[in-house]
Amino acid sequence: MEFIKxxxxxxxxxxxxVAGLEIHQQLKTSHKLFCRCPxxxxxxxxxxxxxxxxxxxxKGELGxxxxxxxxxxxxxxxxxxxxxxxxxxxxxDEEPPSVLNTEALELTLLIAKMLHSTPVDxxxxxxxxxxxxxxxxxxxxxxxxxxxxWIESSMGRVGIETICLEExxxxxxxxxGSEVVWSLDRLGIPLVEICTSPDLKTPExxxxxxxxxxxxxxxxxxxxxxxxxxxxxVNVSVRDxxxxxxxxxQELGLIDRVVAYEAMRQHNLLVIRDILRKRNASVRDTIYxxxxxxxxxxxxxxxxxxxxxxxxVLEKFGGLVGCEIQPNRRFGSELADYARSMGxxxxxxxxxxxxxxxxxxxxxxxxxxxxxxxxxCVVFVCGxxxxxxxxxxxxxxxHAIFGIPNETRRALPDGCTSYMRPLxxxxxxxxxxxxxxxxxxxxxxxxxxxxxxxxxxxxxxxSYGISSEMAHQLVDSEMDDLFExxxxxxxxxxxxxxxxxxxxxxxxxxxxxxxxxxxxxRITHEHLRDxxxxxxxxxxxxxxxxxxxxxxxxxxASVGELLSEVRKEEVDVEGLIRKVVEERKEFVLDRGExxxxxxxxxVMKELRGKVDGKVVSQILKKVIExxxxxxxxxx
Amino acid sequence: xxxxxxVKVSSKGRTYEGVLMPSTTDCIVxxxxxxxxxGIKNPEEIIVLEEKSEKITEKEExxxxxxxxxxxxxxxxxxxxxASKVDYRTGAVTSQFDAQDILTEIPExxxxxxxxxKLVYNILSENMKPEYWIKLARAxxxxxxxxxxxxxxxxxxxxxxxxxxxxxxxxxxxxxxxxVGSQRSSDRPSSDSAMNAICASKxxxxxxxEVCVVMHGTSSDDYCLVHRGCKVRKMHTSRRDAxxxxxxxxxxxxxxxxxxxxxxxxxxxxxxxxLKIMDRLEDKCALVKYTPGAxxxxxxxxVDKGYRGIVIEGTGLGHVGEHWIPSIKRAVEEDVVMxxxxxxxxxxxxxxxxxxxxxxxxxxxxxxxDMLPEVALVKLMWLLGNYSTEEAKKLVNVNIAGEISERSLxxxxxxx
Lengths: 635, 416
Hints:
The complex is a heterodimer.
Chain A: H1 12-15, E1 18-26, E2 49-53, H2 67-74, E3 78-83, H3 102-114, E4 118-119, E5 122-123, E6 125-129, E7 139-151, E8 158-167, E9 171-176, E10 179-183, E11 190-196, H4 203-218, E12 230-237, E13 244-249, H5 255-279, E14 282-283, E15 288-289, H6 300-305, E16 309-315, E17 324-326, E18 329-330, H7 331-340, E19 348-349, H8 360-370, E20 377-382, H9 386-402, E21 407-411, E22 417-422, E23 429-431, E24 438-439, H10 442-447, H11 454-462, H12 468-476, H13 480-489, H14 499-515, H15 525-536, H16 545-555, H17 559-568, H18 573-583, H19 585-591, H20 596-607, H21 613-634
Parallel strand pairs in A: 3-10, 13-21
Antiparallel strand pairs in A: 1-11, 1-12, 2-3, 4-7, 5-24, 6-7, 6-23, 7-8, 8-11, 9-10, 12-13, 14-16, 15-16, 16-20, 17-18, 19-20, 21-22
Chain B: E1 6-11, E2 14-21, E3 28-32, E4 37-40, E5 45-50, E6 72-77, E7 84-87, E8 92-95, H1 99-105, E9 114-119, H2 130-145, E10 150-154, H3 160-170, E11 171-172, E12 177-180, H4 193-204, E13 211-216, E14 223-228, E15 232-234, E16 243-245, E17 252-255, E18 261-263, E19 276-277, E20 285-289, H5 297-304, E21 309-314, H6 325-333, E22 337-342, H7 355-363, E23 366-367, H8 373-386, H9 389-395
Parallel strand pairs in B: 6-9, 6-10, 10-12, 12-13, 20-21, 21-22, 22-23
Antiparallel strand pairs in B: 1-2, 1-5, 2-3, 3-4, 7-8, 11-19, 13-14, 14-17, 15-16, 17-18
């Protein structure tokens, strides 16, 4: 095997690439999963209280303490939680959770049905140990709802292993040293987790299925939208490689690249493994304190990193630590990740030295001190937590001879990944005894009606006489139900207001206003409904819709209030039209009666929809005719 | 087939493999290999693949590490959520660890002191009885005789303050006797038990020579408060800072994790008192809450049953409806000690202000000053157990263990 530098060179079939997806989607329910708090995210500045907590690793119900949990606790972090008027004692971990939110469970069952999965007879809420602070309890509540489903794809059926209902974790606000600040408002939002079988065969296949599941979820219309409301984790392994779970792929567009780069990383690490074995390489257990070697160093980086400085010797690793395994990431980056996870800034290794102001002579003295040969690589770290860090590096380096460690990794913006923590095991689940199990009876599951798919929905909407693009926009912005309701209220397709006007109001008009900087969030469905009704009743012209919506956003007044205000203003329609025509006299004389169309637009804009278009058109026509007539006489 | 066996379950054309778990419903519950539990209704077949292995896990003995120069604290365990774990039989949290397990769970304790541990009994807080207080008092007495430098009593939070009050009356102590518990069970990573236990140990080696309760001071893990054992009440069902000093200031606070002790009010110093035990309690005492329109039958009932002391939790300054006065009068005539306290909890009773109050005093009711109703009950049990009725009557409103504050200070009342 040889090093691969470009993912294009990868042959996924011969690599034995196996990938699976874990999709997390926030649900849109009336309240959170285990309390009555609303699903509202707040600016951190609006936080009304703050809690400070430490977490300790608990024991799993089978008596084992989870590796991932232990790793976090070793780091002993101080967690600060920001609370709001929209959070309660349940988020604070100061009150037992209420029963499982039935609305969320029903929605999860519906999703399970859409994915041809079988629900369990009784749903048990579990505690999944998570001691990174993202949950105030130190665990995430999660329940397995359904299993063994499938979804169709271009490369055949892809299995859906499990569908779980979970609580969302806190949002990390900032991290300052050993202190982490979290926001409590996101904690407890219902989250559905869909895990596919490891049936995905290429990076493109992963992307296709991720998109497909995303669309399916959206067709329920009960999922939250916007940044961070859906997250994809992807599990990747190659033959002889490791099971690696990659978290936080923010953009779906990046997911294929993440998979390709991970396949490449695992392949290259296997190449390194083979070389190490051939060289008969090993990792020496001894940790050397080499602080004094650098007692008079001029390296600013070293001085800043602190003391002690400790080193280990990777025998016959020379040259390999600097090997690139992903674009701009070397084997050394892997070791550095482990060091960082223990609270130091990074590592130094002899493959990349002299550098960072560390001199050749200093490197030689280090080698001498730790009794390292030319073919060996010396790695050292600095700072108060240097010993813990170098131990972590040593264990990772040992693993390189053996293979690739199973890990949870974090997706980086360029598609590469970095180490987060060891892959959690099953030991971290124990029953949430505060939440009673819930029976899923057959009739309940049977009675759930499958929603139209988004494609079907678009198709159906076009039957109202709107373009397919508009229908897409309605569906995309989840305005389609409102559209149908309003259309029916104003007399259907043959009613007073054309379906296109309604659709446009709900889609492009709102997005144009948003672009202008109008706070369209203040415009409620009720407002939109009333505006269209006002047009239908002849109380205002359709041209006035954008202006009125703008006023609504500014004043939060009702449509009725705003219209009666408008009526109070005395509008001299004819005077205004005469003024417009007079100002454009040459144009009118040039175009004759054809000027009516263009001037209509000008007048309606001036009137901002206060007067019906038909009336305006009549007066305008009269005035234009008069102007032409008068000019003729003069001549 | 038993819990812990590895099984294969067939149901509706599917098979599930996992470890059989206890179930409290008609479903069978198995733990799948992914860690999740699921319930299966009416399975067609269950095959045991592998019986539960009876692995005995050896307890780690870490106690030898502690330096012998450190003072020795005796931990007396009574059960409660500072030492609890999940019970599969009921699906709820119950006490299961003995005192030694606490040290295994919280190794930081060993930096403060040496520990010896004793399980006095293991019962849920709500199942506590006065006879257990006596047992506890004797166990504490024994430990102090055996030269424990301080005592820690782990206790469920529900009735901790009753026990703390009982020990406050039953023992004169030269060393700190510290009650500690937790509001979030110790099987959780977010449990308050470790911090409470660490702060309690700090108090147990301090110069505070009193019975006290050490629990979280706020919802955060920033400090614990040291409350006087007979001036403290659990005021919240679930918050970490549920314990509040009522009609008194706490004795001190212990910062976490620095463990600096900050004095808040005066206290008896270590060694100021000589060890003494008065461990009799009169069971036939009751606490009765007066509510609008309530009939006095309950008083008559207790008197007929031969009760010797009744604490009434009256309204406001310490009142009951006029229609209760004949029953009270009769009780007093039959030598029952009648004590009035207030359901306001905050403040002092005073029955000299209104006619009803004056009538109550004339009927023979004794004002319980600013004592908490539950503390007054425990005190009455202790008084009637160790003194004659006449002596007991005289001692009801005399401060014995810090249960009565002489003055009501402005900032004793701090509820929003």
